[in-house]
Amino acid sequence: MQDQVVPTQKFGYIDVKQPAKVKARKLKSWRRRYAVLTLLNDLSRGGKPLAKLDLFESEEKWKRDSSNRVTFILENVTSIRGAHSRTHPFALEIVQRHPVLVLSGTTETNSYTWMLALQKMLVPSQVPRYEDSIQVRVLPDEDALRCGLSGEHTMYVTPQHIELVNASGVSTITWSLSTLKKFDQENDSVFTITCGQ
Question: Is residue 35 classed as helix, strand or coil in its secondary structure?
């Protein structure tokens, strides 16, 4: 098995808030912020995973005045997982003993990339088990809707099966390669899989 490359930094816009149970909350409601996630220490260096998440009002403010920010130190993280939100369908939460921060990208893929970066830095045991993946969008045809599939997913292909995982890191469907009847590439961007017994 190859060693995983652990990112040392990730940055971009993301929506963020703190759960109601957090005492002395700085972010009581959803706010769009420019986030800079930085790995401070990792297990390969003999320490506990430790990272910081700096939040700025905009990318411009980060470039001009990096002192005007809200900083969260992420240590003793036990889980990075999908979260329920009425207004942010792609929400994920950072959990220590309890959820301490909730993040959401504007798309499943955006949220998934943040989740994956956080998992690689802080809880590597939660990183999906396959390195090679393809970002796909499931087209909402009759068969996809019948299977409850729609939107953006990550597709993993192994010698045994094909698996689709949503932005929350949940496996939505797995096909054994022995059940796949046909692969068809309709054009440069549409790939069709036909399966059955």
Answer: strand
Q: What angle do CA 170, 4, 118 make, to 5 degrees?
A: 50
Among residues 141, 140, 138, 122, which one has the least CA distance to residue 175? 138
User: One digit per residue, pLDDT tens: the chain, 197 residues?
Assistant: 333 444 568 889 999 998 878 777 777 899 999 999 998 875 555 667 889 999 999 999 888 877 889 999 998 899 999 898 999 999 999 998 888 899 999 887 788 888 888 988 888 877 766 556 788 888 888 888 887 788 888 887 777 778 787 776 666 777 777 787 787 777 777 777 777 65
Measure the CA angle with vertex 177, ends 174 and 178; round to 5°.
Answer: 120
For the record, the structure tokens of 97 come out as: 């003993």
pTM equals 0.62
Q: Long-range contacts made by residues 132-138, C-beta under 8 angstroms, separation at least 24?
A: 132/156, 132/157, 135/109, 136/164, 136/191, 138/164
Nearest CA-CA partner of 169 in 153, 157, 158: 153
Q: Structural domains in the chain?
A: 9-126 (2.30.29.30), 133-195 (2.30.29.30)
